[in-house]
Structure formats: structure tokens, C-alpha cells
Known about the structure:
eleven-stranded mixed β-sheet, Gnk2-homologous domain-containing protein, 32 strands, alpha+beta, 9 helices, six-stranded mixed β-sheet, signal
Amino acid sequence: xxxxxxxxxxxxxxxxxxxxxxxxxxxxxxxxxxxxxxxxxxxxxxxxxxxxxxxxxxxxxxxxxxxxxxxxxxxxxxxxxxxxxxxxxxxxxxxxxxxxxxxxxxxxxxxxxxxxxxxxxxxxxxxxxxxxxxxxxxxxxxxxxxxxxxxxxxxxxxxxxxxxxxxxxxxxxxxxxxxxxxxxxxxxxxxxxxxxxxxxxxxxxxxxxxxxxxxxxxxxxxxxxxxxxxxxxxxxxxxxxxxxxxxxxxxxxxxxxxxxxxxxxxxxxxxxxxxxxxxxxxxxxxxxxxxxxxxxxxxxxxxxxxxxxxxxxxxxxxxxxxxxxxxxxxxxxxxxxxxxxxxxxxxxxxxxxxxxxxxxxxxxxxxxxxxxxxxxxxxxxxxxxxxxxxxxxxxxxxxxxxxxxxxxxxxxxxxxxxxxxxxxxxxxxxxxxxxxxxxxxxxxxxxxxxxxxxxxxxxxxxxxxxxxxxxxxxxxxxxxxxxxxxxxxxxxxxxxxxxxxxxxxxxxxxxxxxxxxxxxxxxxxxxxxxxxxxxxxxxxxxxxxxxxxxxxxxxxxxxxxxxxxxxxxxxxxxxxxxxxxxxxxxxxxxxxxxxxxxx
Length: 599
């Protein structure tokens, strides 16, 4: 695809410094030049020449990793090397130098550590390096899914070491498993005077890249072709299951005799009639081979993920002939999750609170009834108000009082507000049975409690996350801080009709930073500023302000910035409502007794 006339989408940069960036990758975060966020390349133009970084991969210090090269199947990253050095009496290298780590941010990232292009190497005497890999992602993984190790031996003084050989004397090597999304490398050293461990065959000292296999999608070819809207292979191409990646997925390539870019229209061109017979023969052989590989891959994944146990569970019970487990089809899962939308992930951004040991309520109790009435009325109010609160059972029985409120993002239309509150209400009732709870969605916040919560600034519990560190020397911190301070001033100015501010600012040549702040309108202007300044402190402490995405939310306010635009400046927002009118929109009713990482 590098030989195609156009290797990028129209208007998109072809290079970042010395690196050629072909589609489905693209320069700029959220710039629309790539297939999606995990193919975005962050180009640091402040370097000379500019350097490219992968947004989906992180090293032991949680920094994004520099990209050295992109091929049709692999990405090469600047690697870390662990080492231990000694003089005649003691270790001279830092204590943490004998450990290194790599991890992907999420399983959605279309990468895996290549099990064919990488190897574990150790150079030194009496060293025992160990590679521990996992198919999990993130800084903390729960499984060890593949290991590799080797051992180096030397005679006294290393006299038996042979240059350019790696056979266990002064140097050892081991193959690593494929399909790993994270790993650690550690080693034990016995009477050594120097050792170096790296991944991949050593090129020169401290110049051994880490190789990742990439795929166009995590789906198989068979599944991808069922959804032609998202199918990546263009005209005159063939879909190839990426069995070498260890994580499944597929790639696209031009049919034999054709050339061009398989991921960009018009696809591949150039075959003649004389090649038709050869093409048909090769295609038939390819399809037969692909079918065998697919069958083998399915069986491997089936056994790895508990397939034998699943067979036992779904077989009918011998006594009552009833299935023990319900198996859902992919189509049923798409309907239930609205095509796997992130906001449908149950449990994200929820906190069930046992406040002051009050405990839980029981179904069909008076508290439960009051809660249902309060949340039902709030859902109705969300069709016409960005913010509302509602009380039920107040001044009757303190144990069964319910105070509830919601606050939607001010840039969103009322329909989106209503849908968010409705969805949050449904999930909150399913997840929490405590007498106090809070739900943070991207579009709204919903909370209830068995105590008064109106007109009170509250800074706990807090939901926060920060994603993808950038080694930019603090430049992002210097860019974000004045933006957020300006939005705080904008949200709390005297003539502001609501505590809300948003804006964006340029960050290097190809990138902008998008930011938003908001407070619930039932607190005072001074309390709003105090709340947002508290969120600002947390935001700037988030990896020293060098994160591409950050969110900090508490009951009374939230603050967010991102390299991808997330707010809606074109949709019709409700007319500004005076704060006094909003503060007085408290609903209450007396009833008789006759009947998400939080910290």
C-alpha cells in the first residue's frame, strides 16, 4: 500500500518527521485522518525532526511510545532495555533498571506483541531473564498467559564468550508467545558484571525496537463481511485473517496482479485477462487455506476460553431437561448493547454509597416506593429541564425520605438529556440497593440520598481518569492549565446565567485540546469556583498534566479535557435559565404509609 498514489485520506499529512504514515493510520488525534482513535498518531512537532507516538501503547512509566516504522502488518516502537551493571564490589546501576514493562490501554487497541518478530535476549554472565506476558491490557493485569526465559553462563572473566553468537554462553535467547497485549521483563543476576535484556534481535546497543502486529479490525473476515458499512477491504482486495497476531482480526491486501491501497477507495487496480486463470487458482487455494486456519483458530480460542466447560453447562440437565446457561447470539448482543456502545457498559461511573452506616433498602419497601416516584418524576422533568431536583416522603419518616437530582451537560439538547437520565435511572435501580448512590454518565449526572443534598457543595465521592501519557516535557500542562482557568472564570462570571464553560486551544501543529467545566446550578457562584479549582488541582496532578485525556467529577461539578472533540456546539441547547429560577425548582411531595475509578 506504500506504492499507491495516495496513502492517506484527502488533506491529511503523509509524514510525521521521517515516519511515513499510511491509512488506516493517520497523523493527529481526532483529526479524522485515521480509521479510528487507536490508529491516531500523535506527532510532536516541537522535536526536530518531529517524532510520532502511539496513543494505545505505554511503557513502564506510562508514557506513550515513539513509533519508528509502520509496515503493512507491523509497527516498530522504540523499546526499553533493562540492565544491571556492577563494578568489582557492588551494583552501580539504578535499582529499577532491571525491570521493564509494556501494556496496551484497552483490548480495543488492534495490536499485540509480535511472537514471531520479537525474542527475549540477555547479554552478560550468569543472568536469568524472564518474560511474563498477558492477554489482558492496562497497567495492572490479572493473568499470566505466556512466559519465556533463558540463562547465560560464562567462565571466569568471560573468556569463553564467542563474538556474534548467542548460544547460552555470554548471551541467551528465547521465543516469546504470541497474542500478548502486555508484558514484564525481569531478571536475576548471579555474580554478573554486566547484563542487558531486550526484546527482538539486538541491532546495536540500546537500539532494539519492540514489534507489534496490527490488524484492521478485531473481527474475523467472516464476521466483518456481515457488516459491509464497517468492512475495511475496498475494491479488488482480499480479506486475510491475521492468525499470526494471536488475537484474531483481519487485514486487507490487493488481489494477485493488482496494486494500490486496499483500505482506500478506489482500492486496487491493474490486472489483465491473462492473469485471470492464475488469479482464480490462487484465490481458490487461498480460500481453502483460510478455511483451515479459521477452523484451527476457532478451536484454539474455544478451548482457551473455557469452551469445554461451556459445553457442559449448556447441555440439558438430565433431571429436568432445562438448559443451565442461556447462550446469546451476536445479533442479540448487538440489540441489547445498542451495537456495543460504551455507555451501555453496566457499572461504569456508578457509586453505591453506604452513608453513615444507613445500609440498604429492600424491594417494595416504603423507601423503594419513594425512590421510584422521585426518579420517575425526575425522568419526566428531564424532557424540559437541564437540571431538576425532586423530594419524596419528606417530613414524614426520616428513614424513608428521598432527595434526588440530575444535572445534564449544558451543550446537549433536551432529548439527549432525557435519554441519559432515563438510562441512568434504569441502571441505577438495577445496580444499587443502598440508600445513597450517584451515577456519572458522559451526558449527565444522577444522584439520590436519604438526606438533604440540595444547595450543598460536595466534593466526595470523586470519579476520575486520565489516559495516555505524552513525553512532552510539560508542554501539555502549560497549555491546559490556562485553558481550564479561563473556563472556570467564564463559568463563574457575574453575568453568567449558568455555571458552564467550554473551549479549545491549539497544541502543536496537528492537534487541539478540547475542554469543558460545569457545576450544578443549586450551589453558589463561590462554591462553584471552589469546586472547579479542586478539580483543576486533581487534573494537573494527573501524571503532571501530560495525559491526552482527563476527567474529574464530583457531585457538585466536573472538569474534562480531551484531544478528541467531545462536546456538541452545533446542537440546539435550551435557553439560558436564571440561576434563581433553577434554584427554586425543587419539587417535593408528602406521602402516606398506606399501601464508576471512584474514591
